[in-house]
Amino acid sequence: MHLKKSIVSIIVLTSVICCTYQLSNAQNTSINSDAWQVADQLLESLGGRQVWASTKILYVKEKAFPESLFHPVTAEFWRNLEKPEYRSIIIGHDFRQETIWDEKSGWINRNGTKKEISNEDITQEISDWSQQPYVVYHKLAIRDPLIHPVLKDGDLQIYEGDGGRLLCWFRMDAHGRLLMWGNYYKGEINEHVYGPTKPIGEYIMPAWGTATNGSWRFEYLELKSVENMGTEMVH
């Protein structure tokens, strides 16, 4: 008799555990599904999921107003969205700086003075690369299994894996249009606020943006998908 009661108790307990596990999984799946739906709304507002999925190397041209310089500059950026690889050329009044780096090495040439980027700084750049909005747009678009979107505190938060490092966060309006992006950079909050969107090539992007600390203000001039990092382009 006692044996039968024990068996029944075990069966009931097992059923409760299984139901709880299934309910928890269903809730997590539902929450994550909601987050992916918001992520897709964000991508749609920026030109569409297919556009960002097919963009492997992105070229961006901006008119920018760096806090460190008195005059505005023209800034060109090449970002590989599939692996850590970056190039930029920034030209202004009596100022020219070119930066190139990948996973192995890099250098900065500022006004004719070339300096190698240290291994420590390369590691930091690689960490920062994974948090960049363009890279995250591409990963969301291709459904990269290594990122995990979550809705929290009114933001779409992007994590590296389930419960991993917080990569960045986005804030959108009621229609899913981008208002703000932010991340943690070198232990500090780094956020950008964006203006109303406009068509730029295949993309739909904010007409302007600014870091909340004023370090970098910019207006988008051009965005396009390219085949290489621009090493043969004339400037």
Describe the structure.
This protein has 235 residues and is of the alpha+beta class. The chain is 30% helix and 42% strand. The chain has a 13-stranded antiparallel sheet, with helices on one face. It has a two-stranded antiparallel ribbon with strand order 12-13. Strand 3 and strand 4 form a beta hairpin. The longest helix has 44 residues. The N terminus is likely disordered.
Name the descriptors:
235 residues; alpha+beta; 13-stranded antiparallel β-sheet; two-stranded antiparallel sheet; 4 helices; 30% helix; globular; disordered N terminus
Q: Major beta sheet, specifics?
A: 13 strands, antiparallel
What is the tally of helical segments? 4
Helix content: 25-40%
The average pLDDT value, as a whole number, equals: 87
Sheet with the most strands: spatial strand order: 6-5-4-3-2-1-15-14-11-10-9-8-7
Order of helices and strands: HHEEEEEEHHEEEEEEEEE
Morphology: globular
C-alpha termini separation? 89 Å
Q: State the low-pLDDT regions, or none.
A: 1-31
Q: What is the CA-atom radius of gyration, in angstroms? A: 23 Å
Tell me the number of strands. 15
Q: Give the amount of beta strand, in percent.
A: 35-45%
Indicate the structural class: alpha+beta
Describe the secondary structure blueprint for this structure.
Blueprint: H1 2-45, H2 49-54, E1 57-66, E2 73-80, E3 85-92, E4 95-102, E5 106-110, E6 113-116, H3 119-129, H4 133-141, E7 147-152, E8 155-160, E9 166-172, E10 178-185, E11 188-194, E12 197-200, E13 203-206, E14 208-211, E15 216-225
Antiparallel strand pairs: 1-2, 1-15, 2-3, 3-4, 4-5, 5-6, 7-8, 8-9, 9-10, 10-11, 11-14, 12-13, 14-15
